[in-house]
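[09:14] KT: can someone run the structure on this one? pasting the chain below
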Amino acid sequence: MESKYNNKIITWSKVATVFFLILMAAADVIGVSSARYLCVTWTGRTDTLALAIFTIVYYAITVMAFILLISVFKLLSNMSRDLVFDRKNTRLMTAIVLALVFTGFFFVLLAFVWGEAAFLALTAWFMALIVLSVKVVFDKAIVMKNDLDLTI
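[09:31] RB: done, structure tokens below
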């Protein structure tokens, strides 16, 4: 049976997700030097507190990115199996929302040493709102689908 969805787009999205997972792994390997570079470049600060906050936030955000990317990969895998309006997908979307919300909080922590990080926090929370809205639509569609299955 042919998929209702364009599997080529899903396949390329999965490839891109794996690529970003590899980039995140590489970012973790060079994390300390990257965090130091970003701290000095973006803030002009070299004090221990600023470097420590940048390093902690750097690694915390990479953990959130791993959670987000793995959830997206699983979501895409479900889509390629034609599992669209399914509770598994809404749980994956919940994981994505939580990762984005926590990422926003980590950016707020970073804003104490680099004020522009507050904008990144707002961006993460805005993205969480969008994903949460899609999740609500999926939840509603699941309920409607179950109601229709009962009437047939």
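[09:33] KT: thanks! The longest helix spans residues 117-151.
[09:34] RB: yep, looked fine to me
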